[in-house]
Amino acid sequence: MHARMTGALLIGLLVLLPVARAQDLPRSGQPVFDRVVELVNTNFYDDKALDRFNAAVRAEINAAAAPISATSTANRVNQAIASVLASLQVSHTGRFTTGSIDYFELSDIFRLAIRNDTRRLFPPDGEARYPGIGMVTSVLEGKRFVSDVYDGSPAKKAGLLVGDEIIAVDGKPYSEIGSFDTKVGRGVEIRLRRHRDAEPLSARVEVERLRPLPMFQRAIEESMTISEHNGRRIGYVRLWTLSTREGLDIVAEALLHGRLTDAEGLVVDLRGRWGGGPADAAEFLVGGTPTFRLVPRRGDPTLANFRWKKPVVALIDKGTRSGLELFAYTLRQNAVPLVGERTAGALLAGRAYILPDDSLLELAVSDAVIGDDLRLEGVGLAPDVPVSFPLAYAAGRDPQREAAMGEMMLILGAGPIGIPEWDRSVTR
C-alpha cells in the first residue's frame, strides 16, 4: 500500500507486535540472511506464522547439501532468503535486488520508509532512478515476452507491443537493468519476434534514466483517450499505480474539463503494476457528494472535490493488487462491471527495509480487513465478465480492453456494434 499509509499503520503496530529477542532467533552468521530473519520476527503481521517461518530458517541453516553460513555464495543466500520468505505464503513480502526494475519502483513507492538510505543509494539527490525504456517483461515457457509498455515511454514511442518476444538487446540476452546501464541518452537495438515463427524484427529505442513515480504519472496521463464506437464516445484511462502524488488529480481534471470531458462513459483500467493510494481512491468515480470548487477573489478556482456521474466499466487482472484491488472492490460495491481476470488477492499493508547488501525487503506488516471480516488476501475478486489475455505474440491485441468497450456500449444502449466478432461472446 502507499508508503504514507504504511507509515501510519506501522506506528501503532510496532507497539502490538511481539518482539522476539535477538538471542532467541536462529542464526547463520550470514548478515543479509540473519537480518531478514530478524525483521520478519520483529515486524511480520501474523505471529502465528513465525513458527513455520523459523522452522524454514533452521532447515536452510542446517541443509545437508548447502547450509547457510557466513561463507555462503550470493546465489545460495538468494535462494535461501526466497525460500524462507515463501514459507510465509502472503503477498507484500519479498526481496528485491538492484538488478530488477521492481527494486527501483518499490524504492520510490516506499521512499519515506527508507528515507535514511536514499541519498546513499541514489546519489546525489536521493531520487530513485534506473536506466531503461519503460518496458516490463515476463518469461513464458523459456521465452521472454513484453508484458507491459508504459504509456509515453521510449518503448511505446518506438512501437514495441505487448506480446512481443524479446530476443536480444544490442546482440546480447535481455537484462532488466544491465541491458541499458551505461547507455542513457543513446539508442539500443531490440531484436524481437512479433508473430510466432516469423522472422525477427529490429526496433531502435532511446534509453532514459527513469524516475518511477513521475514516469507512472506520465503514463497515466498519456493513457487517456476517447474513442468513438457507433457514434458513442468512450473514455479510457489506465491507473498504473495509485502511489503517484497527482495521478488521480490529473484524471479528475481530464474528466472535468480536459481530454476526457466529452466521454459518455469511462473504461478505467486497473491492470496495474503496484497498488498504493488512499482507501477512498475510487470515490471520485462512485461517491455521492457533488463536485466542489474553491473560488478565490483573485486567481483560478481550485478543484477540491470531483464526482463522475456517468457510467464506468473497470478492467482487472492479476496485476490488480493492493490499493488497486480495494479500488476494484469499491467499484463492484457500486454496481460497476469488472471485466478481465481474477485480481491478485494481494491486499495487505507492506513496508520496505534496506538490507546490509543494499537489497530491499518488502514485508507485510499489517492485515487488511474490509468491513467487519472480509479479506481479499489470497482470494481476490472474480470478474463479472471473464476474458482471458493470451500474452505470447499478442501483437498489441487486447481482448480484455475490447470486451470492456463492448460492455460500455451495451450500458450506453449502443449494442456491441463495432467490437470484433471474437469479443461479442464475452459481453453481456
Rg (CA only): 23 Å
Task: Report how far the terminal alpha carbons are from each other.
Answer: 33 Å
Tell me the β content: 15-25%
What overall geometry do the principal axes of the alpha carbons give?
A: globular
Global mean pLDDT: 91
State the CATH superfamily name of the largest domain.
2-enoyl-CoA Hydratase, Chain A, domain 1
Structural class, please?
A: alpha/beta
Q: What would the CATH topology of the largest domain be?
A: 2-enoyl-CoA Hydratase, Chain A, domain 1
Overall helicity = 25-40%
Please summarize the sheet with the most strands: 6 strands, mixed
CATH class of the largest domain reads Alpha Beta
Q: Provide the domain count.
A: 3
Per DSSP, the total helix count is 13
| Poorly predicted tracts of residues | 1-19, 417-428
Q: In order across it, which strands form the biggest sheet?
A: 9-10-11-14-15-18
CATH hierarchy: architecture of the largest domain:
Alpha-Beta Complex
Number of strands: 18
How would you describe this structure to a colleague?
This protein is an alpha/beta fold. It has three domains: 3-121, no CATH class; 130-210, PDZ domain (Pdz3 Domain), CATH 2.30.42; 213-347 and 369-424, Alpha-Beta Complex (2-enoyl-CoA Hydratase, Chain A, domain 1). It is 29% helix and 20% strand. It contains 13 helices and 18 strands. The chain has helices at residues 3-16, 31-43, 50-61, 74-86, 101-109, 118-121, 154-157, 212-223, 247-257, 283-286, 323-333, 399-411, 421-424; strands spanning 94-96, 130-132, 135-140, 143-149, 165-169, 187-193, 201-206, 208-210, 225-229, 232-238, 265-269, 292-294, 302-305, 312-316, 338-340, 349-354, 360-366, 385-386. The strands form six sheets. A six-stranded mixed sheet has the order 9-10-11-14-15-18. A hairpin with a 7-residue loop joins strand 6 (187-193) and strand 7 (201-206). The longest helix is centred in the N-terminal third of the chain and has 14 residues, at 3-16.
